[in-house]
TrEMBL record:
It comes from Oreochromis aureus. The keyword Transmembrane helix applies. InterPro entries: Ig-like_dom (IPR007110), Ig-like_dom_sf (IPR036179), Ig-like_fold (IPR013783), Ig_C1-set (IPR003597), MHC_class-I_related (IPR050208), MHC_I-like_Ag-recog (IPR011161), MHC_I-like_Ag-recog_sf (IPR037055), MHC_I/II-like_Ag-recog (IPR011162). This is Ig-like domain-containing protein. The keyword Iron does not apply. The chain crosses the membrane at residues 320-342. GO terms for cellular component: external side of plasma membrane; extracellular space. Residues 204-290 form the Ig-like domain. Residues 1-19 form the signal peptide. Keywords: Glycoprotein, Membrane, Signal, Transmembrane, Transmembrane helix. One of its GO terms (biological process) is immune response.
Length: 344
């Protein structure tokens, strides 16, 4: 699972796991009654990688990948289209929609409207699909059905919205064209231009960490790309699940990723440690194997393991992992709403 946070609003979503299945996603958050955050924020994601971002405060289209910048320098028409989408379409459309929902529910205070739309393409089978979903105040609200070209109410309160949006035939045709045609073209254009960058593989740096001699062993991998990877522990060459606690794959600031997996060694005798291996593996089978060896485990207080007078705190190298969770908790308390969980 991946977490993308814009100020106090976060999207939780699952990355495309197949090496031949690609996805283009547009994520938008509009808010009302929330101080100190933009009224709307938008991001475009390709195979889980953020390509661009915009919001109502900065009013600048921020391109997050160098190859995307070069691509749009050569395609000013597409750049103008994205800019117009960010600073004309988003404020107009989402402003009206969140106002309409506030009027419909006759409620005041904090309100969050989130949207996820885009497409998927299976390069191997050629199958193409589109998706368009809305969440309101942290709950699934409506989604567009491409087969029937109608909206599906995901909760009883959304029935009125479904009726209104179904009656808008112009918007229905526009959605169909976006999901089955335009977004597919955008995605394949991005894939073609950024192929060398998107298809690269980078193996991680792997460390073994432990707070105290009786604590669990943390196998931490960072700096890998892409995020289609797995981590697991082996004993005598066989994968094990008992006493194992896998972590999530999370993004680093430089576009790479990190993850970790813990092993409970409380019942493992010292002479048996050498029977265990931590395995990191990319989807193309490139891998890094790290043998469980006390001589390479960091246990001293300092840069990797902080001292806190006996309180069992995770190592500092896991700061980014914790920060993502803390950001979600802070967002929940500030916005006073839950978050929409979108699963593929």
């Amino acid at each position: 699972m991946r977490i993308i946070c814009f100020y106090s609003c976060c999207f939780f979503f699952y990355s495309t796991s197949s090496a031949v299945k690609h996805s283009l996603q547009l994520l938008v958050t509009a808010s009302s009654g929330v101080p100190n955050i933009p009224e709307y924020m938008g991001a475009m994601m390709l195979d889980g990688i953020q390509l661009g971002y915009c919001d109502s405060i900065n009013k600048i289209l921020e391109l997050r990948q160098d190859w995307v910048k070069k691509m749009l320098e050569n395609d000013t028409e597409l750049l103008e289209m994205y800019t117009r989408y960010c600073f004309v379409n988003l404020p107009n459309n989402f402003g009206r929609r969140i106002s309409s929902l506030e009027e419909q529910f006759q409620s005041e205070g904090v309100h969050i409207l989130q949207m996820r739309e885009g497409c998927e393409w299976d390069e191997k089978t050629g199958e193409e699909t589109g998706f368009l979903q809305y969440g309101y105040n942290g709950e699934d609200f409506v989604e567009f059905d491409l087969k029937t070209l109608t909206w599906i109410a995901l909760k009883p309160e959304a029935a009125i919205t479904k009726q209104r949006w179904d009656a808008d035939s112009v918007r229905t045709k526009h959605n169909e064209n976006l999901l089955t045609n335009i977004y597919q073209k955008w995605m394949k254009k991005f894939l073609s231009y950024g192929k060398s960058c998107l298809q690269r593989t980078v193996l991680p740096s792997v460390s073994l960490l432990q707070k105290t001699p009786s604590s669990q062993i943390i196998c931490h991998a960072t700096g890998f790309y892409p995020d289609r990877a797995v981590m697991f522990w082996k004993k005598d060459g066989e994968e094990i699940h008992e006493g194992v606690d896998p972590g999530e794959i999370l993004p680093n600031n430089d576009g790479t990723f990190q993850s970790s997996i813990d092993l409970n060694v409380s019942s493992v005798t010292p002479e048996d440690w050498s029977r265990y291996d931590c395995v990191f593996q990319l989807s193309n089978d490139e891998h890094v194997i790290t043998k469980l060896d006390k001589t390479v485990i960091s246990t001293k207080c300092g840069k990797k393991i902080p001292c806190n007078d006996g309180v069992d705190t995770p190592p500092a190298t896991m700061t980014a992992v914790i920060a993502a969770v803390v950001a979600a908790v802070v967002a929940l308390s500030v916005a006073a709403v839950g978050f929409v969980v979108y699963k593929k």
